[in-house]
Fold this protein.
Amino acid sequence: MTAGSEFSLAALFASTHEDVPDVQPNIMTVCTGNICRSPLAEAVLATRLADLDLRVHSAGTQALVGHGMPNEARTLAERNGVSPERIAAHRARLLSETLMNDADLILTMTGQHSTAAMQLTPRRMHSTFTVREFARLAASLDDGVLRRIARSAGNPRSRFGVLVQAVADQRGVAPRATGDEDVIDPYRQSLEVYEQSAAQLLPALTQVERVVRIALA
């Protein structure tokens, strides 16, 4: 991205974005049952970003309401630094329009989950991504560009919002995915399959963390 285009992008957000209420920014992760992939993403992100004023939570499109994480998902969460207390506290819940409307960023595990979420709340299209799509699009914007865009907004939630929009605006601009961007479902599979699923998920969370830290620093 050239210096001129960086300036134009930052100016666009400065001129079109109005501050949202100054409340805690909110990320929601979404899968099917809300017991394997999305709670792992939630727990790892929340642990990595524990020093920031941010809410991370999760839901499922067909949630096994009230269920906890299976042992394999718990093992992977522990390996990634999540406290046993956080792991034990998880209970699955169903994705709802209220949860969608409250979230500043919705990160799904598959394209099918994104479709279900956007059918539930179409106006949240620009805030809804598969987690791997978000990572790919965010990677096309370097730290300097993101910082300049963030400075166009006022409070932390607004700064996060303009960066989410900037990532959404890379759709059709950033290099296209070379394959599907789903995180495979390990439910009722072996620990090896859980590890394969996590290997698709965890690198994408690094890009999410980068964007959040730039927004909220």
Q: What stands out?
A: The chain has one domain: 3-216. The chain has a mean pLDDT of 91.
